[in-house]
UniProtKB/TrEMBL annotation:
UniProt keyword annotation of Transferase present: yes
Keywords from the UniProt entry: Membrane, Methyltransferase, Mitochondrion, Mitochondrion inner membrane, S-adenosyl-L-methionine, Transferase, Ubiquinone biosynthesis
Species per Swiss-Prot/TrEMBL record: Discina gigas
EC annotation from Swiss-Prot or TrEMBL: 2.1.1.201
Keyword Membrane set for record: yes
Gene3D superfamilies attached to this UniProt entry: Vaccinia Virus protein VP39
Protein name: 2-methoxy-6-polyprenyl-1,4-benzoquinol methylase, mitochondrial
Subunit structure: Component of a multi-subunit COQ enzyme complex, composed of at least COQ3, COQ4, COQ5, COQ6, COQ7 and COQ9.
Source taxon at top rank: Eukaryota
Compartments, as annotated in UniProt: Mitochondrion inner membrane
Membership in a protein family: Belongs to the class I-like SAM-binding methyltransferase superfamily. MenG/UbiE family.
Primary localisation category: mitochondrion
Annotated binding of S-adenosyl-L-methionine, by residue: 121, 147, 177-178, 195
Amino acid sequence: MAARLLIRRAAISAARPVFASPFRAACLYSTAEKPPSSAAAAQSPPSEPDTHFGFQTVKESLKAGKVAEVFSSVASSYDVMNDAMSFGIHRLWKDYFVRSLNPGRNPGGQPMSILDVAGGTGDIAFRMLDHAEKINADRETSVICADINADMLREGEKRALEQGYMSTNRISFRVENAETLDSVPDNSIDLYTISFGIRNVTRIPMALAAAHRVLKPGGVFACLEFSKVSLAPLDTIYQQYSFSVIPLMGQLIAGDRDSYQYLVESIKNFPSQEQFAQMVKEAGFMNVGKGYEELTFGVASIWKGVKPLDSK
């Protein structure tokens, strides 16, 4: 009888799970080790990279959609708000930007093929065509106005129709992602411009690589963008104005405070003049001069790069 009882107790003890105590289970692994993961977990893809959307941190795949929402919201009032926010100075910057590029056919040369990325409402594209015709007597140079946002492009098409450009075949509007420019062939563009748009791109190095790809050897990359104010006392005033006044203007004029809050945050997050010039160089361009020119004490800047003639 005693023998049977001992055998029964041994069987019950053998049937108990090894990890009956959570404390005992935890002690089986040192603090430097983890329990072995399953094969499926070991093969899981790495997590998606984060990026910034204003001062928020979001997944890269979400940023383009959020930026699209912003510009769809502000498309109809975008030019009015630019005037209000900059007291009209953005028009002077854009005029100077275009003059510095001198678009149009040189005597004895060929018409230019221009790609204006993030062209939206056509501000830069129309200036390019006007300059080519009035300064260089060129009515053949053409501009592709590309933007990821169809609502912004519709505003540009409306303006092109009003100004008589749609019937000239000198301008076309395309929905394009700046990071890929899928419909633009390699080595096909003489001048690539992007104005107040590159800071909204999710992966800026990819956009720069796409610009390098589509430009002909000897072609010019030119970017006009907000930058870092060079004078500290002025920067303090500028930051107060940007974060206190501009979102309020967005609420009063466009009925959209959040979109303009994002816009000022995106300006704050953009690299410095020197950092972005280095990014342009790393994309394969030769910097023009020191790589950038400051406008209005650095409130905005122009960056230029040339695609080397020996580029493939």
